[in-house]
Specification:
Helix content: 10-25%
Largest sheet: 7 strands, mixed
Keywords: FAD, Flavoprotein, NAD, NADP, Oxidoreductase, Redox-active center
Bound molecules: dihydroflavine-adenine dinucleotide, nicotinamide-adenine-dinucleotide
Mean pLDDT: 98
Distance between the termini: 60 Å
Protein name: monodehydroascorbate reductase (NADH)
Pfam family, one: Pyr_redox_2
Radius of gyration: 23 Å
Number of strands: 26
GO cellular component, one term: cytoplasm
Number of helices: 9
Shape: globular
Strand content: 25-35%
Low-confidence stretches: none
Cofactor: FAD
């Protein structure tokens, strides 16, 4: 079994790893010093593409088109880029054991990797219905989406089940993005989720009402307030029916499940301090263990703006946290300091012709503004969240890049808002003045 040593190792080869690699290069990492170890077979890519362009029926996005760091307008880092910089991309390699005391990682094939500094960037994995013991949940064509292999399986199944019926389980990000793209593939789509409205961890009832009606107008059927409790399959083991808790039974040729994710921290259990389900870090993404950093989905970090510690499962943070950690590593080597991470939460989604962005915190009272008729040709509406007399969060559907910048500024500056009726009337004009 081989043993290799590197000054820096990143375990995980997703979004954070790609943005970290670019920052290592900016900071002047020397050839041979850095390795990225990833269980995926391809160089880091922009994961959000998998639930959007990758599944389009025509003109679908494919690698190398969406390697990092193209998602934020940067140069695409192709495998040749890593080779040119002397960064080892160790792909199709799952780390199955990590010993932080001896600074050693061991792969499934039994190879050993030693490091001086480690960045944990293992991201999240999907929650599976089999984890909850749902009857028949291991039937064929019950699919999940996290990695490119999952997306390839979806593409194959969409082809095999042309014009078939899809049931989407879950009304969060995956549920909303996948039901739209499945509809674009001309499949018959039904969404099922337990809550009274979709995306309840961010949307208010008002915001959700727009998307639910828009989706319904596109032909997506929505069943709320119940869950899938079992699946029936045919003689080939392929899913055929979804049994709901309320007694209904839905026909299905494909089931896509998006019922949440879990950060991949298992390798490090008992070796590093954890909080809120993630690995606890400081404002430089340093963990409780010297020379070990954690970034992206796995990090529970100080959210300076809200005097709180949080974990964020979104791409903007995975990029920025990776850059911050690498800057901090180089600064500490040079005996310098850098500013603390001061993150303004930013989430976004796209489906059909829709596109929204959200900045800040969705707490307090919410007001809605603008044209939120799902029948409008170009709906443009938003929401502000107001807490203790200040605007702390802002959402905008259909905004231009200037308008999105304006709502970001509102969430950052947190201007006073005394009269919610006036604010609702002013809407986007209020943001433009800040
Ligand atoms: P990420 O999941 O990107 O990478 C983790 C990597 O580690 C993977 O390559 C994995 O294989 C590897 N790994 C894990 N364990 C390992 C081990 N033991 N050994 C070796 N390798 C290991 N966000 C957003 O803001 N807007 C959006 O539109 C979307 N869209 C979106 C679509 C889909 C389909 C998903 C799944 C997610 C999104 N997201 C998103 C969320 C966003 O993609 C996510 O927050 C980031 O990818 C997190 O980056 P990380 O680098 O932390 O993990
Ligand atoms: P999510 O947390 O956004 O949504 C999960 C949904 O499933 C919720 O509505 C939840 O109540 C529902 N649910 C839970 N149990 C259920 C059950 N038994 N039956 C039916 N519904 C059930 O998680 P997700 O949509 O699975 O996304 C997974 C990960 O991928 C997250 O980290 C997410 O942030 C990320 N992601 C983000 C984006 C984006 O930011 N645009 C897009 C895709 C994925």
């Amino acid at each position: 079994m081989a043993e290799k040593s590197f000054k820096y190792v990143i375990v995980g080869g997703g979004v954070s790893a790609g943005y970290a690699a670019r920052e290592f290069a900016n900071q002047g990492v020397k050839k041979g010093e850095l390795a990225i170890i990833s269980k995926e077979a391809v160089a880091p890519y922009e994961r959000p593409a998998l639930s959007k362009g990758y599944l389009f029926p025509e003109g679908a996005a494919r690698l190398p088109g969406f390697h990092t760091c193209v998602g934020s307008g940067g140069e695409k880092l192709l495998p040749e880029w890593y080779a040119d910089k002397g960064i080892s991309l160790i792909l199709s390699t799952e780390i199955v054991k990590a010993d932080l005391a001896s600074k050693t990682l061991v792969s499934a094939a039994g190879d050993t990797f030693k490091y001086e500094s480690l960045i944990i960037a293992t991201g999240s994995t999907v929650l599976r219905l089999t984890d909850f013991g749902v009857q028949g949940a291991d039937s064929k064509n019950i699919l999940y989406l996290r990695e490119i292999d999952d997306a390839d399986k979806l593409v194959e199944t969409i082809k095999a089940k042309k014009n078939g019926k899809v049931v989407i389980v879950g009304g969060g990000y995956i549920g909303l993005e996948l039901s739209a793209v499945m509809k674009l593939n001309n499949l018959d789509v039904t969404m099922v989720y337990p809550e009274p409205w979709c995306m309840p961890r961010l949307f208010t009832a008002n915001i959700a009402a727009f998307y639910e009606e828009y989706y319904t107008n596109k032909g997506v059927q929505i069943i709320k307030g119940t869950v899938a409790v079992g699946f029936n399959s045919n003689d080939n083991g392929e899913v055929k029916e979804v049994k709901l808790k309320d007694g209904r039974v839905l026909e299905a040729d494909i089931v896509v499940v998006g019922v949440g994710a879990r950060p991949l921290t298992t390798l490090f259990k008992g070796q590093v301090e954890e909080d809120k389900g993630g690995i606890k870090t400081d404002a430089f993404f340093k963990t409780s263990v010297a020379n070990v950093y954690a970034v992206g989905d796995v990090a529970t970090f100080p959210m300076k703006m809200y005097n709180d510690i949080r974990r964020v499962e979104h791409v903007d943070h995975s990029r920025k946290s990776a850059e911050q950690a690498v800057k901090a590593i180089f600064a500490s080597e040079q005996g310098k300091t850098i500013d603390e991470y001061d993150y303004l939460p930013m989430f976004y989604s796209r489906s059909f012709n829709l596109s929204w962005q959200f900045y800040g915190d969705n707490v307090g009272d919410a007001v809605i503004f603008g044209d939120n008729s799902p029948k409008s040709e170009n709906p443009k509406f938003g929401s502000y969240w107001i807490k203790d007399g200040k605007i702390v969060g802002a959402f905008l559907e259909g905004g231009s890049s200037e308008e999105n910048k304006a709502i970001a500024k509102v969430a950052k500056v947190q201007p006073a808002a005394d009269n919610l009726d006036v604010l609702a009337k002013e809407g986007l004009a209020f943001a433009s003045k800040i």
